[in-house]
Amino acid sequence: MIAPEYLEWRDLGHAGGCTRTGWEASTKAVDFPGGRREFAVRLVCPKPKGCGMFHEWSAIIPPGDDSEDSRTGMSIESGPVEYIGYGTAPIKAGSVWLHAGPPRQRGRLGEDNSPEYFVVSVTAARPRTMADALGVVGPAISRGRQVKGRWFAGGIVDHERYGPSASPIRDDLASRTAAVRWVLVNAQTRQDT
Predict the structure, then answer these.
(1) What is the C-alpha to C-alpha distance for residues 155 and 119, in angstroms, rounded to an integer?
(2) What's the rounded mean pLDDT across residues 21-41?
(3) pTM
């Protein structure tokens, strides 16, 4: 084989008409209780300046070296960023920005499929570290359905082993605006202590 490093690889396509040539690349590695691990690579051409396409590869590795374990798996996913939330255009909400999380139901984000949550940040740039995120807000859920007119809000706490989670949480706020205000007050209180 001559030059497989060059000739066997194919470019990953952007959406038609996209003028960007590169991708925003990121990786994720998670250790779960019991020794299971997940590793993922994601390429995104984020909106509003990009075409809004993503490509993601993930592998689940069981504990030990048992390759016959049924928990072993690999997945490949591609499509518009509305399928994952990440990479959609941020939403201005007063003095802060909201960055969509994944859709509550499988499929695209839209009027009938809101994000599970929004990460609240001071800038339109996507949050990359704990310091970039003020908190999270989202529609309150009960028995798998959104509670009409109720929103939750939470500060973000970093658990060293299993990653960030929301704490404390309020799930009785009357609107997205009220939830964002709660996050801002909570973030200021954390900063003052």
Answers:
(1) 10
(2) 87
(3) 0.79
